[in-house]
Specification:
Blueprint (H helix, E strand, L loop, with lengths): L4 H21 L20 H16 L2 H17 L1 H8 L5 H11 L7 H12 L6 H15 L3 E7 L5 H14 L5 E7 L6 E6 L2 E6 H12 L1
Parallel strand pairs: 1-2
Antiparallel strand pairs: 1-3, 3-4
Helix pairs in contact: 1-2, 1-6, 2-6, 2-7, 3-7, 5-6
């Protein structure tokens, strides 16, 4: 196959394996249409195809929450263990060695078959080093499924728990009571205050912004 054909072949492989695996774990109830298990939002790209297929398989198996926990845990291992992440992403290491490592890691009854099948399939397709990107896509689907609004709060220094809670309470009021999935970022260039990105809206309450506004007023 050509380089362009490989991503498409990989996505087809993972879709077939994951959906077949879900059917084996828990047959779909006749009263439910296939649409009930489709991802709540449309995501595109190779990593999204893995995430979409995993979401559908996990939904059919009734294991969405468990799969999300397992995938986030795997990403955390990749983040904290640079040697392990390097092993998975090293193109000179045979894919068979990576498959073997993943099979051993997910061996046993504690891991859901959907998660194990996804990881083995990605290892077989030599994409296991990109698992963190697939996890991010899956997490995005889960946030949409829960009706969560994603918010990024950037501050000049790490926020205390009371400060973060105060901001979250204010955001909840602005979103009509919807759950807000908050992530925080520290950027010393702000000098003070915060910026808030929620959906497509951006609020800049940083000291740096106020200084720039003041400077423009002097020109």
């Amino acid at each position: 196959p050509t380089a362009r054909q490989i991503p498409e072949m990989a996505s087809r492989t993972v879709m077939h394996r994951l959906v077949a695996n879900a059917a084996a774990v828990r047959p779909a109830t006749r009263g439910f249409a296939t649409a009930d298990h489709l991802p709540p939002v449309k995501l595109f790209g190779v990593h999204a195809r893995y995430a979409n297929a995993t979401y559908t398989a996990a939904s059919k198996a009734g294991n969405l929450a468990a799969v999300e926990t397992e995938l986030l845990g795997f990403k955390e291992v990749m983040t904290k263990n640079s040697a392990f992440a390097g092993f998975l992403g090293n193109p000179t290491i045979a894919r068979e060695a990576k498959v073997d490592a993943i099979e051993k890691m997910f061996d046993g009854p504690k891991t859901t078959p959907v998660t194990k099948n996804l990881m083995i399939t990605m290892a077989s397709n030599n994409r296991i080093g990109e698992a963190d990107k697939v996890v991010d896509m899956f997490a995005e689907l889960m946030k949409a499924q829960r009706g969560e609004v994603e918010c990024i709060i950037t501050s000049a220094a790490a926020l205390t728990k009371p400060q973060l809670k105060k901001i979250q309470d204010g955001l909840a009021a602005q979103t009509g009571g919807k759950a807000v999935a908050v992530s925080t970022v520290v950027d010393e260039a702000l000098l003070g205050g915060v910026t808030v990105q929620i959906g497509d809206k951006f609020l800049d309450m940083s000291v740096a912004s106020k200084i720039n506004t003041f400077k423009r007023g002097l020109m």
